[in-house]
Every structure is written in structure tokens, then in C-alpha cells.
Amino acid sequence: MKKFIFLLLFCLIATSPAPAQNPHKVRIGWGDMLFESMAFREASPALGGKGFTGHIFAEYQYDASKVVSVGGQVDFEGIFTADMNNYNLVIMPTVRFTYLRKPWVELYSGLGAGLLCAMDNQGGAEFAPALNLNLFGVQLGPGPFSVGIELGALNSLLGSSSVYMLGSRLLSISLNYRF
To answer: With 60 as the cut, is the pLDDT of residue 52 above it?
Structure first.
């Protein structure tokens, strides 16, 4: 019975009306490329020509309730080697669960699932499913502008032989605007 009451209360809170003002949020950010930088690490510095953009992302969120926000995200990264340039583009719908909402701080977790398009400058392109797990996020700042810090993992693979990202974007930072 306790579980039923807890579930009922959670559903009531999750489906309660969204805040009356400023239910829209856009954000732009950058995340690390730990997996990609390790996967493309050179055996010798003499080979040269390495460069990484990091994950550059943009997201839109709509507060569907006080707890649940829905939206979409686009993530781009570039990996540049001496002989090839690789680009990853991820497009995914997202959902966010906010468990603390105060004027100066929001605490949340989220999930995104979508499609990765891996391309290179040789004309190659492959598609794979992508999953973004946002384990913990903090948004700081009053008013329409705020900054965000997230711990999570962006993953994309087609099996053990085609791993594009695994635990990538472990740390992300963003600039947010609410309207």
C-alpha cells in the first residue's frame, strides 16, 4: 500500500501544471571527449595532426510540469587526425526530471535517445543509436540566464566492433536562457 501511495503522489507531482511563466528553455554547451581522445590517441607524437572540438550541443526544453521537461538536443563533435577528419552528429529527443527548483538553483537528471550520424571527409557515413544519460545536473543563477554543469555519459555503438562513443561527454557545461 505504501508503494501505491508513493507512486500516486509521484504521478500527481509529475503531472502538476508547469510554472505559469517562462516554461521554455534553450541552452548551448560544451562537453568533454574522453572516449574519443583516448580511442584516437597516437602511438607516436611524430604522426601529428590530432585535434578535437569536444561536444558542442544545443538543446530546447519545455516544462510540461513542475518535475518533467521534454525537448530535443543536437550534439556535434569533430575528430581530426593526420589523414582523416571525422564528424559525429547526434539528434535526440530528451526528457528531464527536476527534483529541486529554487530561484538560484535547480537539480535534475535526464535522458535522451536518438540517432548518431558518423561521417568523415572521405565520403563515409554510418548511423547508430545514441543514448545520453544525464545522471546529475545543477543549474545556477536567478532570472532568465543561468549556467549548468552536468555529469553523465553519451554513448553510441552498433555492437562490439562499431563503438563510436562510450562514456563520452562525462562532464558538460552550458549557458541557459529561460523564456
So the answer is: yes
